[in-house]
Amino acid sequence: MNELPPPRRSEWSDLALYQTAQAPVAVDLSDNTSRFGVPPSALAELRATEGETVARYPSGYGEPLKSALAEFAGVERDQIVTGCGSDDVLDSAIRAFGRPGDTLSSLSPTFPMPARFARLNGLRLQETPLHADGAFDPDALLAGSPAIVYLCTPNNPTGTLPDGAAVDRVIARAKGIVILDEAYAEFAGASRAAQAPARGTLLVVRTMSKAFGLAGLRVGWAAGAAALVRDVELSRGPYTLNALAERAAAAALRHDAAWVMARAAEAVAARDSLAAELRSLGLSPLPSAANFLLVPVPNAALVAARMRDSGVAVRAFANLPGFGNSLRIHAAPAAERAAAVAALKEALACA
Ligand SMILES: *Cc1c(COP(=O)(O)O)cnc(C)c1O
Fold this sequence. Notes:
Blueprint: E1 27-28, H1 40-47, H2 51-55, H3 63-73, E2 80-84, H4 85-97, E3 103-108, H5 113-120, E4 124-129, H6 138-142, E5 148-152, H7 164-173, E6 177-181, H8 185-188, E7 202-207, E8 219-223, H9 226-234, H10 243-280, E9 292-296, H11 300-309, E10 312-313, E11 315-320, E12 324-330, H12 334-350
Parallel strand pairs: 1-10, 3-4, 3-5, 5-6, 6-7
Antiparallel strand pairs: 2-8, 7-8, 9-12, 11-12
Helix pairs in contact: 1-10, 3-10, 4-5, 4-9, 11-12
């Protein structure tokens, strides 16, 4: 491949494209998606799609899905915004609530996408350490009255639950907007989505890519006060949610919410089994409230590369602030888990 010239916007010259999955492997536990199935009603809806559905535009702002989400989240329809994955909702929200030069404040380490969107939108980044037990200093996070605070709970990539009292203090005291990313709420068994509209400054962002098993459809959403939701929708164009995704997601919420929660419970049990299996290898995974585990290992990149050679993909992190070299591995049924643990054991032996 030829070397590309630097980007047109020279201030982006140090940005690289997001690293997505490489060649398929037999067992992929690298991206925190669900290994416990797809809601049957969503698949049925996709299979029954007629030509007319794809010949026409979808709804402007995901209106049919908003009703199903409002019911699911316990809020009103006009308190829901949808998007092409929660990444799109995060991007739009950061554009809506931060002017160039403003600050986005977040914990570290955390999900990297908001920092990236902040950068693209000309915002400055302020980081506060998140400790292994979930503790963090809420006042440090709020120092300087940032325009936006981003908090991920349970946190990716650590899996830990940031201290609840500290999260509540941030929500109560923030002068700017608080974006709470609850991508793993179904596994943690708790969400602040229903409380969001009453707090005019809180946006709770959720996704159907993890517990709902619909990552390929790219459906994200958020709950917040109607004015906040309107601002997010103002910051982007219409039709971001495609017609198939909109229908399948609404069907899953209407008919399979209990089914999804049962699969999430299976994922949590599988995660706990994985934790025990990792401990039996002498490793110490962090406590997790999500469907994945972060486990410190020496030479994480090398270990992950060796595992990939034996057909198992996990996510390697080198020098994660406060946590060092680690692997992130998500929950899977017994057969995939056994393959992953065997590959890890072998990789560690020769690392
Ligand atoms: C996976 C993930 C997302 C992205 O979800 P999409 O809806 O697929 O864009 C957002 N936030 C966190 C913390 C995640 O782990």
